[in-house]
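Quiz preparation item.
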Protein backbone atom coordinates (compact mmCIF):
# COMPACT_ATOMS: atom_id res chain seq x y z
CA UNK A 1 0.00 0.00 0.00
CA UNK A 2 2.78 2.41 0.96
CA UNK A 3 4.81 1.61 -2.16
CA UNK A 4 1.88 2.44 -4.41
CA UNK A 5 1.49 5.87 -2.87
CA UNK A 6 4.96 6.98 -1.92
CA UNK A 7 7.21 6.89 -4.98
CA UNK A 8 4.97 8.86 -7.39
CA UNK A 9 4.25 11.46 -4.69
CA UNK A 10 7.91 11.84 -3.72
CA UNK A 11 9.02 12.10 -7.36
CA UNK A 12 6.51 14.91 -7.91
CA UNK A 13 7.54 16.61 -4.66
CA UNK A 14 11.15 16.48 -5.83
CA UNK A 15 10.28 19.17 -8.37
CA UNK A 16 9.83 21.67 -5.50
CA UNK A 17 12.52 24.16 -4.52
CA UNK A 18 13.68 22.16 -1.48
CA UNK A 19 13.81 18.91 -3.43
CA UNK A 20 10.76 17.65 -1.59
CA UNK A 21 12.43 17.50 1.86
CA UNK A 22 9.58 19.28 3.68
CA UNK A 23 6.96 17.12 1.98
CA UNK A 24 8.87 13.93 2.82
CA UNK A 25 9.03 14.89 6.51
CA UNK A 26 5.29 15.60 6.63
CA UNK A 27 4.43 12.43 4.71
CA UNK A 28 6.67 10.29 6.93
CA UNK A 29 5.24 11.82 10.10
CA UNK A 30 1.61 11.20 9.22
CA UNK A 31 2.40 7.70 7.95
CA UNK A 32 4.22 6.81 11.17
CA UNK A 33 1.30 8.08 13.25
CA UNK A 34 -1.11 5.91 11.25
CA UNK A 35 1.23 2.92 11.40
CA UNK A 36 1.68 3.30 15.15
CA UNK A 37 -2.07 3.43 15.73
CA UNK A 38 -2.72 0.46 13.43
CA UNK A 39 0.02 -1.57 15.13
CA UNK A 40 -1.38 -0.82 18.58
CA UNK A 41 -4.91 -1.85 17.56
CA UNK A 42 -3.68 -5.01 15.83
CA UNK A 43 -1.55 -6.05 18.80
CA UNK A 44 -4.41 -5.51 21.26
CA UNK A 45 -6.64 -7.56 18.94
CA UNK A 46 -4.13 -10.45 18.74
CA UNK A 47 -6.54 -13.11 20.12
CA UNK A 48 -9.28 -12.12 17.65
CA UNK A 49 -6.92 -12.01 14.66
CA UNK A 50 -5.45 -15.39 15.54
CA UNK A 51 -8.90 -16.92 15.87
CA UNK A 52 -9.85 -15.44 12.48
CA UNK A 53 -7.06 -17.41 10.80
CA UNK A 54 -7.03 -20.39 13.14
CA UNK A 55 -10.56 -21.76 13.11
CA UNK A 56 -9.13 -25.25 12.45
CA UNK A 57 -6.59 -25.16 15.32
CA UNK A 58 -6.87 -27.11 18.54
CA UNK A 59 -6.93 -25.05 21.80
CA UNK A 60 -3.23 -25.55 22.68
CA UNK A 61 -2.03 -24.60 19.18
CA UNK A 62 -4.38 -21.60 19.09
CA UNK A 63 -3.01 -20.42 22.45
CA UNK A 64 0.57 -20.77 21.18
CA UNK A 65 -0.28 -18.89 17.96
CA UNK A 66 -1.84 -16.09 20.03
CA UNK A 67 1.25 -15.88 22.25
CA UNK A 68 3.48 -15.50 19.19
CA UNK A 69 1.07 -12.89 17.81
CA UNK A 70 1.62 -10.69 20.87
CA UNK A 71 5.36 -10.68 20.11
CA UNK A 72 5.18 -10.49 16.31
CA UNK A 73 2.36 -8.07 15.49
CA UNK A 74 4.54 -5.06 16.46
CA UNK A 75 6.49 -5.94 13.30
CA UNK A 76 3.72 -4.11 11.42
CA UNK A 77 5.19 -0.79 12.52
CA UNK A 78 8.75 -1.69 11.59
CA UNK A 79 7.83 -3.20 8.22
CA UNK A 80 5.94 0.02 7.50
CA UNK A 81 8.91 2.12 8.60
CA UNK A 82 11.20 0.02 6.38
CA UNK A 83 8.93 0.60 3.40
CA UNK A 84 8.65 4.34 4.07
CA UNK A 85 12.38 4.91 4.45
CA UNK A 86 13.28 2.53 1.63
CA UNK A 87 10.88 3.96 -0.93
CA UNK A 88 12.19 7.46 -0.24
CA UNK A 89 15.67 6.10 -1.00
CA UNK A 90 14.33 4.42 -4.15
CA UNK A 91 12.71 7.66 -5.27
CA UNK A 92 16.12 9.32 -4.84
CA UNK A 93 17.62 6.49 -6.97
CA UNK A 94 19.47 4.87 -4.08
CA UNK A 95 18.26 1.28 -4.58
CA UNK A 96 20.89 -0.77 -2.73
CA UNK A 97 19.93 -0.18 0.94
CA UNK A 98 16.26 -1.13 0.47
CA UNK A 99 17.33 -4.29 -1.35
CA UNK A 100 20.01 -5.43 1.07
CA UNK A 101 18.85 -4.37 4.55
CA UNK A 102 16.64 -7.51 4.86
CA UNK A 103 19.95 -9.43 5.11
CA UNK A 104 20.40 -7.83 8.54
CA UNK A 105 16.91 -9.05 9.47
CA UNK A 106 17.90 -12.58 8.44
CA UNK A 107 21.11 -12.47 10.49
CA UNK A 108 19.25 -11.43 13.65
CA UNK A 109 16.46 -13.98 13.09
CA UNK A 110 18.97 -16.79 12.46
CA UNK A 111 20.81 -15.84 15.64
CA UNK A 112 17.51 -16.14 17.52
CA UNK A 113 16.86 -19.58 16.01
CA UNK A 114 20.38 -20.71 16.92
CA UNK A 115 19.95 -19.45 20.49
CA UNK A 116 16.65 -21.31 20.79
CA UNK A 117 18.25 -24.57 19.65
CA UNK A 118 21.27 -24.14 21.93
CA UNK A 119 19.25 -23.29 25.04
CA UNK A 120 16.14 -25.42 24.57
CA UNK A 121 17.14 -28.01 21.98
CA UNK A 122 16.24 -28.41 18.33
CA UNK A 123 13.02 -29.98 17.06
CA UNK A 124 13.85 -31.10 13.51
CA UNK A 125 10.91 -33.50 13.23
CA UNK A 126 8.28 -31.14 14.63
CA UNK A 127 7.44 -33.38 17.59
CA UNK A 128 7.47 -30.65 20.26
CA UNK A 129 3.96 -30.31 21.69
CA UNK A 130 2.41 -26.81 21.58
CA UNK A 131 1.71 -26.94 25.33
CA UNK A 132 5.44 -27.51 26.04
CA UNK A 133 6.41 -24.01 24.83
CA UNK A 134 7.30 -21.83 27.81
CA UNK A 135 7.00 -18.02 27.96
CA UNK A 136 10.81 -17.75 27.80
CA UNK A 137 10.97 -19.83 24.61
CA UNK A 138 8.20 -17.78 22.98
CA UNK A 139 9.88 -14.51 24.00
CA UNK A 140 13.24 -15.63 22.60
CA UNK A 141 11.90 -16.73 19.22
CA UNK A 142 9.22 -14.05 18.78
CA UNK A 143 11.38 -11.29 20.25
CA UNK A 144 14.37 -11.92 18.00
CA UNK A 145 12.07 -12.16 14.97
CA UNK A 146 10.67 -8.70 15.75
CA UNK A 147 14.14 -7.36 16.61
CA UNK A 148 15.34 -8.43 13.16
CA UNK A 149 12.55 -6.50 11.43
CA UNK A 150 13.30 -3.45 13.60
CA UNK A 151 16.99 -3.60 12.65
CA UNK A 152 16.06 -3.92 8.96
CA UNK A 153 14.08 -0.67 9.21
CA UNK A 154 16.21 1.43 11.54
CA UNK A 155 19.46 0.89 9.62
CA UNK A 156 17.94 2.82 6.70
CA UNK A 157 18.12 6.06 8.70
CA UNK A 158 21.91 5.84 8.29
CA UNK A 159 21.54 5.64 4.51
CA UNK A 160 19.18 8.63 4.63
CA UNK A 161 22.00 10.66 6.13
CA UNK A 162 24.37 9.47 3.43
CA UNK A 163 22.18 10.97 0.68
CA UNK A 164 21.66 14.19 2.63
CA UNK A 165 18.21 13.60 4.14
CA UNK A 166 17.33 14.31 7.77
CA UNK A 167 14.02 13.28 9.27
CA UNK A 168 12.40 15.87 11.50
CA UNK A 169 8.83 15.19 12.71
CA UNK A 170 6.45 17.72 11.16
CA UNK A 171 2.80 17.76 12.20
CA UNK A 172 1.80 20.72 10.00
CA UNK A 173 -0.08 18.66 7.44
CA UNK A 174 -2.47 21.17 5.91
CA UNK A 175 -1.90 22.70 2.49
CA UNK A 176 0.85 20.42 1.20
CA UNK A 177 -1.21 18.10 -1.01
CA UNK A 178 -1.41 15.14 1.36
CA UNK A 179 -5.07 14.79 0.40
CA UNK A 180 -4.04 13.23 -2.93
CA UNK A 181 -1.84 10.74 -1.11
CA UNK A 182 -4.73 9.94 1.23
CA UNK A 183 -7.12 9.27 -1.64
CA UNK A 184 -4.59 7.00 -3.32
CA UNK A 185 -3.96 5.20 -0.05
CA UNK A 186 -7.68 4.58 0.51
CA UNK A 187 -7.93 2.49 -2.67
CA UNK A 188 -4.75 0.56 -1.91
CA UNK A 189 -5.97 -0.05 1.65
CA UNK A 190 -9.17 -1.47 0.18
CA UNK A 191 -7.03 -3.71 -2.04
CA UNK A 192 -5.12 -4.82 1.04
CA UNK A 193 -8.37 -5.78 2.76
CA UNK A 194 -9.39 -7.82 -0.29
CA UNK A 195 -6.17 -9.82 -0.38
CA UNK A 196 -6.29 -10.30 3.40
CA UNK A 197 -9.79 -11.76 3.07
CA UNK A 198 -8.51 -14.12 0.37
CA UNK A 199 -5.70 -15.17 2.70
CA UNK A 200 -8.16 -15.94 5.48
CA UNK A 201 -10.23 -18.12 3.15
CA UNK A 202 -7.10 -19.91 1.91
CA UNK A 203 -5.83 -20.63 5.42
CA UNK A 204 -9.13 -22.00 6.65
CA UNK A 205 -9.72 -24.16 3.57
CA UNK A 206 -6.15 -25.53 3.75
CA UNK A 207 -6.68 -26.21 7.45
CA UNK A 208 -9.20 -28.92 6.56
CA UNK A 209 -6.25 -31.12 5.56
CA UNK A 210 -3.99 -30.14 8.47
CA UNK A 211 -4.07 -33.49 10.27
CA UNK A 212 -3.56 -35.82 7.32
CA UNK A 213 -2.10 -34.13 4.20
CA UNK A 214 -0.28 -31.08 2.82
CA UNK A 215 -1.79 -27.98 4.42
CA UNK A 216 -0.82 -24.54 5.73
CA UNK A 217 2.61 -25.79 6.79
CA UNK A 218 3.23 -26.80 3.16
CA UNK A 219 1.64 -23.79 1.45
CA UNK A 220 3.69 -21.25 3.43
CA UNK A 221 7.22 -22.47 2.49
CA UNK A 222 6.04 -23.37 -1.02
CA UNK A 223 4.90 -19.75 -1.46
CA UNK A 224 8.28 -18.49 -0.18
CA UNK A 225 10.05 -20.73 -2.73
CA UNK A 226 7.77 -19.35 -5.43
CA UNK A 227 8.48 -15.79 -4.29
CA UNK A 228 12.27 -16.18 -4.29
CA UNK A 229 12.90 -15.59 -8.03
CA UNK A 230 10.16 -12.97 -8.11
CA UNK A 231 11.72 -11.05 -5.22
CA UNK A 232 15.28 -11.28 -6.50
CA UNK A 233 14.57 -10.62 -10.19
CA UNK A 234 11.18 -9.01 -10.81
CA UNK A 235 11.16 -6.75 -7.76
CA UNK A 236 14.73 -5.60 -8.40
CA UNK A 237 14.04 -4.74 -12.04
CA UNK A 238 10.59 -3.34 -11.31
CA UNK A 239 11.82 -1.13 -8.47
CA UNK A 240 14.40 0.56 -10.69
CA UNK A 241 11.90 1.04 -13.50
CA UNK A 242 9.18 2.28 -11.12
CA UNK A 243 11.11 5.43 -10.24
CA UNK A 244 11.81 6.12 -13.91
CA UNK A 245 8.17 5.45 -14.84
CA UNK A 246 7.00 7.82 -12.11
CA UNK A 247 9.29 10.55 -13.45
CA UNK A 248 7.95 10.14 -16.99
CA UNK A 249 4.35 10.01 -15.74
CA UNK A 250 4.91 13.21 -13.74
CA UNK A 251 6.27 14.87 -16.90
CA UNK A 252 3.29 13.50 -18.93
CA UNK A 253 5.78 11.82 -21.27
CA UNK A 254 3.58 8.85 -22.16
CA UNK A 255 5.78 7.72 -25.04
CA UNK A 256 8.75 7.10 -22.76
CA UNK A 257 6.44 5.65 -20.12
CA UNK A 258 5.18 3.07 -22.62
CA UNK A 259 8.77 2.30 -23.61
CA UNK A 260 9.66 1.75 -19.95
CA UNK A 261 6.74 -0.64 -19.45
CA UNK A 262 7.51 -2.70 -22.54
CA UNK A 263 11.24 -2.87 -21.80
CA UNK A 264 10.68 -3.89 -18.18
CA UNK A 265 8.15 -6.61 -19.10
CA UNK A 266 10.50 -8.07 -21.71
CA UNK A 267 13.45 -8.05 -19.31
CA UNK A 268 11.45 -9.65 -16.51
CA UNK A 269 10.02 -12.24 -18.90
CA UNK A 270 13.47 -13.25 -20.14
CA UNK A 271 14.59 -14.21 -16.64
CA UNK A 272 11.32 -15.45 -15.17
CA UNK A 273 10.69 -17.98 -17.96
CA UNK A 274 13.94 -19.80 -17.19
CA UNK A 275 13.43 -19.42 -13.43
CA UNK A 276 9.98 -20.98 -13.61
CA UNK A 277 11.18 -23.82 -15.85
CA UNK A 278 14.18 -24.72 -13.67
CA UNK A 279 12.17 -24.58 -10.47
CA UNK A 280 9.34 -26.70 -11.89
CA UNK A 281 11.81 -29.40 -12.92
CA UNK A 282 13.57 -29.12 -9.54
CA UNK A 283 10.35 -28.99 -7.49
CA UNK A 284 10.77 -32.47 -5.98
CA UNK A 285 14.45 -31.97 -5.03
CA UNK A 286 13.48 -28.59 -3.52
CA UNK A 287 10.78 -30.29 -1.50
CA UNK A 288 13.31 -32.91 -0.39
CA UNK A 289 15.32 -30.15 1.29
CA UNK A 290 12.34 -29.72 3.63
CA UNK A 291 11.25 -33.40 3.89
CA UNK A 292 14.16 -35.69 2.94
CA UNK A 293 13.62 -39.45 2.85
CA UNK A 294 9.81 -39.43 2.84
CA UNK A 295 8.81 -39.54 -0.82
CA UNK A 296 5.09 -39.12 -0.14
CA UNK A 297 5.79 -35.84 1.66
CA UNK A 298 8.28 -34.82 -1.04
CA UNK A 299 5.82 -35.41 -3.86
CA UNK A 300 2.97 -33.63 -2.04
CA UNK A 301 5.21 -30.63 -1.30
CA UNK A 302 6.65 -30.62 -4.82
CA UNK A 303 3.22 -30.66 -6.44
CA UNK A 304 2.22 -27.57 -4.44
CA UNK A 305 5.41 -25.81 -5.59
CA UNK A 306 4.60 -26.68 -9.21
CA UNK A 307 1.02 -25.45 -8.75
CA UNK A 308 2.34 -22.04 -7.75
CA UNK A 309 5.16 -21.91 -10.31
CA UNK A 310 2.92 -22.29 -13.36
CA UNK A 311 1.73 -18.78 -12.53
CA UNK A 312 5.16 -17.25 -11.85
CA UNK A 313 5.62 -15.43 -15.17
CA UNK A 314 2.12 -13.85 -15.10
CA UNK A 315 2.58 -12.96 -11.41
CA UNK A 316 5.85 -11.11 -12.04
CA UNK A 317 4.45 -9.40 -15.14
CA UNK A 318 1.43 -8.25 -13.13
CA UNK A 319 3.82 -6.69 -10.59
CA UNK A 320 5.13 -4.36 -13.31
CA UNK A 321 1.70 -3.65 -14.81
CA UNK A 322 0.32 -2.77 -11.39
CA UNK A 323 3.14 -0.31 -10.83
CA UNK A 324 2.43 1.26 -14.19
CA UNK A 325 -0.93 2.37 -12.80
CA UNK A 326 0.72 3.54 -9.58
CA UNK A 327 3.18 5.66 -11.57
CA UNK A 328 0.17 7.35 -13.17
CA UNK A 329 -1.26 8.07 -9.71
CA UNK A 330 -4.09 5.59 -10.30
CA UNK A 331 -4.73 3.18 -7.41
CA UNK A 332 -8.45 2.87 -8.18
CA UNK A 333 -8.06 0.64 -11.25
CA UNK A 334 -5.73 -1.87 -9.48
CA UNK A 335 -8.38 -2.14 -6.75
CA UNK A 336 -10.95 -3.35 -9.27
CA UNK A 337 -8.77 -5.87 -11.07
CA UNK A 338 -7.66 -7.13 -7.64
CA UNK A 339 -11.33 -7.45 -6.68
CA UNK A 340 -11.80 -9.57 -9.80
CA UNK A 341 -8.88 -11.80 -8.79
CA UNK A 342 -10.03 -12.18 -5.18
CA UNK A 343 -13.60 -13.12 -6.15
CA UNK A 344 -12.27 -15.68 -8.63
CA UNK A 345 -9.72 -17.10 -6.20
CA UNK A 346 -12.18 -17.35 -3.30
CA UNK A 347 -14.62 -19.25 -5.51
CA UNK A 348 -11.91 -21.65 -6.64
CA UNK A 349 -10.53 -22.07 -3.10
CA UNK A 350 -13.96 -22.89 -1.70
CA UNK A 351 -14.36 -25.44 -4.48
CA UNK A 352 -11.04 -26.97 -3.36
CA UNK A 353 -12.65 -27.64 0.03
CA UNK A 354 -14.70 -30.38 -1.68
CA UNK A 355 -11.58 -32.18 -2.99
CA UNK A 356 -10.00 -35.19 -1.26
CA UNK A 357 -7.68 -33.88 1.46
CA UNK A 358 -4.57 -34.98 -0.46
CA UNK A 359 -5.43 -32.52 -3.26
CA UNK A 360 -6.61 -29.46 -1.29
CA UNK A 361 -3.23 -27.72 -1.00
CA UNK A 362 -2.22 -28.28 -4.62
CA UNK A 363 -5.70 -27.18 -5.67
CA UNK A 364 -5.22 -23.90 -3.80
CA UNK A 365 -1.83 -23.37 -5.47
CA UNK A 366 -3.27 -23.97 -8.94
CA UNK A 367 -6.22 -21.71 -8.11
CA UNK A 368 -3.76 -18.95 -7.22
CA UNK A 369 -2.05 -19.32 -10.60
CA UNK A 370 -5.33 -19.35 -12.54
CA UNK A 371 -6.73 -16.30 -10.76
CA UNK A 372 -3.46 -14.39 -11.11
CA UNK A 373 -3.15 -15.13 -14.83
CA UNK A 374 -6.69 -13.94 -15.55
CA UNK A 375 -6.06 -10.88 -13.37
CA UNK A 376 -3.05 -10.03 -15.56
CA UNK A 377 -5.15 -10.34 -18.72
CA UNK A 378 -7.71 -7.88 -17.34
CA UNK A 379 -5.01 -5.50 -16.09
CA UNK A 380 -3.34 -5.40 -19.52
CA UNK A 381 -6.65 -4.61 -21.21
CA UNK A 382 -7.27 -1.74 -18.77
CA UNK A 383 -3.71 -0.42 -19.13
CA UNK A 384 -4.00 -0.40 -22.91
CA UNK A 385 -7.21 1.61 -22.62
CA UNK A 386 -5.34 4.08 -20.44
CA UNK A 387 -2.16 4.43 -22.49
CA UNK A 388 -3.09 3.25 -25.97
CA UNK A 389 -0.62 1.02 -27.84
CA UNK A 390 1.87 -0.55 -25.43
CA UNK A 391 4.17 -2.20 -27.92
CA UNK A 392 2.45 -5.53 -27.26
CA UNK A 393 3.80 -6.97 -30.48
CA UNK A 394 7.40 -6.67 -29.26
CA UNK A 395 6.40 -8.14 -25.89
CA UNK A 396 4.62 -11.11 -27.51
CA UNK A 397 7.54 -11.75 -29.87
CA UNK A 398 9.92 -11.66 -26.89
CA UNK A 399 7.84 -14.15 -24.87
CA UNK A 400 7.51 -16.48 -27.88
CA UNK A 401 11.29 -16.37 -28.36
CA UNK A 402 11.86 -17.10 -24.66
CA UNK A 403 9.37 -19.99 -24.80
CA UNK A 404 11.04 -21.56 -27.84
CA UNK A 405 14.48 -21.25 -26.22
CA UNK A 406 13.33 -22.95 -23.02
CA UNK A 407 12.01 -26.13 -24.70
CA UNK A 408 15.42 -27.87 -25.13
CA UNK A 409 16.33 -26.84 -21.58
CA UNK A 410 13.10 -28.35 -20.22
CA UNK A 411 13.69 -31.63 -22.03
CA UNK A 412 17.28 -31.86 -20.81
CA UNK A 413 16.24 -30.97 -17.27
CA UNK A 414 13.54 -33.64 -17.22
CA UNK A 415 16.01 -36.28 -18.46
CA UNK A 416 18.53 -35.29 -15.78
CA UNK A 417 15.85 -35.34 -13.07
CA UNK A 418 14.84 -38.91 -13.97
CA UNK A 419 18.48 -40.01 -14.26
CA UNK A 420 19.20 -38.65 -10.77
CA UNK A 421 16.21 -40.46 -9.30
CA UNK A 422 14.15 -37.34 -8.71
CA UNK A 423 10.84 -39.03 -9.45
CA UNK A 424 11.18 -42.25 -7.44
CA UNK A 425 11.34 -43.09 -3.75
CA UNK A 426 14.93 -43.52 -2.57
CA UNK A 427 16.37 -41.69 -5.59
CA UNK A 428 19.56 -39.67 -5.17
CA UNK A 429 17.80 -36.36 -5.86
CA UNK A 430 15.08 -36.81 -3.20
CA UNK A 431 16.56 -39.09 -0.53
CA UNK A 432 18.76 -36.55 1.27
CA UNK A 433 19.32 -32.82 1.48
CA UNK A 434 22.83 -33.11 0.03
CA UNK A 435 21.61 -35.18 -2.90
CA UNK A 436 18.77 -32.72 -3.52
CA UNK A 437 21.10 -29.71 -3.52
CA UNK A 438 23.67 -31.37 -5.80
CA UNK A 439 20.90 -32.42 -8.19
CA UNK A 440 19.40 -28.93 -8.30
CA UNK A 441 22.78 -27.39 -9.05
CA UNK A 442 23.41 -29.84 -11.90
CA UNK A 443 19.92 -29.49 -13.40
CA UNK A 444 19.87 -25.71 -13.00
CA UNK A 445 23.29 -25.24 -14.59
CA UNK A 446 22.44 -27.45 -17.57
CA UNK A 447 19.08 -25.81 -18.17
CA UNK A 448 20.47 -22.31 -17.76
CA UNK A 449 23.28 -22.86 -20.26
CA UNK A 450 20.94 -24.42 -22.82
CA UNK A 451 18.49 -21.53 -22.43
CA UNK A 452 21.20 -18.92 -22.90
CA UNK A 453 22.48 -20.79 -25.94
CA UNK A 454 18.99 -20.96 -27.42
CA UNK A 455 18.42 -17.25 -26.89
CA UNK A 456 21.81 -16.48 -28.45
CA UNK A 457 20.95 -18.50 -31.54
CA UNK A 458 17.57 -16.75 -31.74
CA UNK A 459 19.38 -13.37 -31.47
CA UNK A 460 17.42 -12.23 -28.44
CA UNK A 461 17.89 -8.46 -28.04
CA UNK A 462 16.92 -8.74 -24.35
CA UNK A 463 19.73 -11.26 -23.75
CA UNK A 464 22.21 -8.98 -25.48
CA UNK A 465 21.04 -6.08 -23.30
CA UNK A 466 21.76 -8.07 -20.13
CA UNK A 467 25.02 -9.64 -21.31
CA UNK A 468 26.37 -6.64 -23.24
CA UNK A 469 28.11 -4.92 -20.29
CA UNK A 470 29.66 -8.23 -19.13
CA UNK A 471 30.95 -9.09 -22.63
CA UNK A 472 32.38 -5.58 -23.04
CA UNK A 473 34.18 -5.84 -19.71
CA UNK A 474 35.67 -9.23 -20.58
CA UNK A 475 36.86 -7.89 -23.94
CA UNK A 476 38.60 -4.94 -22.23
CA UNK A 477 40.42 -7.36 -19.95
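Solution:
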Amino acid sequence: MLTAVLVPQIVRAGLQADGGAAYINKLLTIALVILGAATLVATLAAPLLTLLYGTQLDPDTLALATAFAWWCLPQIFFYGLYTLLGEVLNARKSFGPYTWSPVLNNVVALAGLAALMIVYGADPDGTRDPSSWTPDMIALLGGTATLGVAAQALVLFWFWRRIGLRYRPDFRWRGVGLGDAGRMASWTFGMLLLTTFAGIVQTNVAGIASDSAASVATLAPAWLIFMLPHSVIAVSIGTAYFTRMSEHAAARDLVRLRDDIGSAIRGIGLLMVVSAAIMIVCAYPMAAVFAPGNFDSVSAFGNVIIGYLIGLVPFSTLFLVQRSFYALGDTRTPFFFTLFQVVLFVGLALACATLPVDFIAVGIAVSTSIAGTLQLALALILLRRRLGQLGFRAVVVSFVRDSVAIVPALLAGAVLLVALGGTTAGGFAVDSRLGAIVSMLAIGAAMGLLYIGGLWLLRSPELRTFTGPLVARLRRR
